[in-house]
Write a structure and sequence with these properties.
Layout lengths: L4 E6 L5 E6 L25 H17 L4 E7 L9 H8 L6 E8 L5 H7 L5 E6 L6 H11 L5 E8 L4 H14 L2 E8 L16 H9 L2 E5 L13 E5 L4 E3 L2 H6 L9 E2 L4 E4 L4 E4 L9 E2 L12 E2 L8 H4 L3 E2 L1
Helix pairs in contact: 1-2
Length: 321
């Protein structure tokens, strides 16, 4: 009898999440990505307004007894966002016990940028986009970071027309590096809140992804920058638990949470216009805007009305069946 996922909860201590699409400037134009992620008409360069809005968010979480904060930056390509480093440095000076900094990057930025800034980052999620990636530059940056970042993960974007190219590159990466974590990422019809569940013309690829969604070979584990456990676990109906891997949950079609209690206030999503929502899935209207005014609701959770959960950061929100 197979086990059933019944909850996703913090591993130890509760933590707040900010997931932020800092700009829509990107040097790639991937077929599966919508224009809102790369058009480049929302650069968000007013650092003073950004920090003023963030301080209100920090105050909310601190007043609700959140002592740990995870900030996950995406885009666009966030390493091209000019206020990036100043915003991170400001966050690290807040009253949280620890602010974990994570970034989703295509790893196309020059290695000199990483040489200057790598110490600021706890997690680097490096997405490999086969249409546009410079394989050698990606590997060069990965080699630099592999013994410096506590959690470094190569996300192989499994776009069906480039399937074999991705697998060939994965073998090349694996042969060059000593430490690797690799996620094989199902590609949705469109990377947007309203997207449908992933669907491949060749159904054998969907079955392959259910069996091959994550692998790692860590020969020298990098020490974390902190002593806190800012992570979550999956809980199953037979009381077994395992460390949360949202990509595995998607690949195995366990990302259907309609009717579950979802503790949305613990995680907010800021889009490129500065609009703030609880989660990135769109089940609740915006609670305001980073640059003007916003108000958090009093509700502790909502009962999820959505058919499926496609966003990895939303899957990480505390939820129970």
């Amino acid at each position: 009898m197979s086990t059933e996922l019944v909850a996703i909860i913090p591993k130890k201590q509760k933590y707040a999440n900010i997931v932020w699409q800092v700009s829509n400037l990107c040097n790639y134009r991937c077929e599966y990505c919508n224009e809102g992620n790369w058009k480049g008409d929302n650069l968000n360069l007013n650092k003073e307004k950004i920090i003023a809005g963030l301080e209100k968010i920090y105050d909310y979480y601190l007043s609700h007894d959140y002592k740990l904060l995870k900030m996950f930056f995406s885009g666009g390509e966030p390493t091209y966002w000019k206020p990036f480093i100043d915003v991170i440095n400001h966050a690290k000076q807040t009253k949280f016990d620890y602010v974990l900094i994570a970034v989703n990057t295509n790893l196309s930025t020059k290695k000199s940028w990483w040489e200057k800034n790598y110490k600021l980052f706890d997690d680097v999620v490096a997405s490999y986009h086969p249409e546009f990636a410079d394989d050698d530059q990606y590997i060069d940056n990965y080699l630099f970071l592999e013994d410096k970042i506590n959690y470094l993960c190569a996300r192989m974007m499994m776009h069906e027309p480039y399937w074999d190219k991705v697998l060939t590159f994965k073998k090349k990466l694996e042969s060059r590096v000593k430490n690797f974590r690799i996620e094989y990422v199902p590609i949705f019809d469109e990377l947007a809140p309203s997207t449908d569940p992933y669907n491949y013309k060749d159904k054998s690829k969907e079955e392959w992804l259910k069996l091959n969604n994550y692998e790692e070979n860590i020969s020298n584990r990098v020490k974390s920058n902190h002593d806190f456990d800012i992570s979550s676990i999956e809980v199953y109906d037979d009381q077994t638990v395992q460390d949360l891997n949202s990509n595995r949950i998607v690949a195995k079609n366990n990302n259907f949470f309609k009717g579950w209690k979802c503790y949305l206030p613990e995680s907010i999503f800021i889009n490129v216009q500065g609009n703030i929502s609880l989660g990135s899935c769109g089940v609740i209207n915006s609670i305001g805007n980073l640059y003007t005014n916003f108000n958090f609701p009093n509700n502790e959770y909502i009962v999820c009305p959505k058919y499926h959960c496609h966003c990895g950061t939303d899957i990480c929100i505390t939820k129970e069946k």
